[in-house]
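Troubleshooting log. The previous structure file for this entry was overwritten by mistake, so regenerating from the original sequence record. Sequence copied from the archived sheet and checked twice against the printout by T.R.
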Amino acid sequence: MLDFCFIIAGNGSLSLRAWLSKQLWKQENCGLAKIEHAKGMYALYYDETQTLGYKGIVATPESTEVSCSSIPKEETLCAYLFVNHEAYSSYCKSYNEYFSWVSERNEARFRGTMNHGQGYDAKNMMHTIGLLQQAKEILSKSELQVQRFNREELLRIKNGAYSYDELFVWSQKLFQEVQELCLHSLLPVAPDQDRLRQQLVDMRKHLYQIKL
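Regenerated output below.
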């Protein structure tokens, strides 16, 4: 939470940690009072003697909210503190999503990514290149080639033989070629739904050996 706290300084702001360091102050000795009608804004006071019972800015490093204290009327205001709750909430959401992914990820696939050292999901990139190549073939030849003629090349991608930059340029080139082919392809704009439906029926009849 402390990383999302800022001190209002002139026409700008300063991170709370930097401001406390400059003052040689501790967050535990600070007291906060909420400012009415100003979301996320607090008046900050400091107790060098540690006798006023201030709760500090946060109670513990794991706190998800700042702490407010009872401030004596005669105390001198030190600064105005802004807490960016929206940014903190967004950070927490991303943090939780990341560790949820860590707990559910395919460990063998993740280790493969770490081992080849290229910093990207090589299996994902292999499929990206492969699918773009198939799209190009469908548009240029009007046929789908399931058995890949360049199997070894695709496996080299999976094994991390190419850098991310090389694959990015490669995929962009293929994507542009696919877009260009789309403009001149003789393929129909949409599939024949009736024909597809009949093919599905025929496949199921053959699968279950049904004679109607």
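Residues 91 and 145 are 45 Å apart (CA to CA). Archived copy saved in two places this time.
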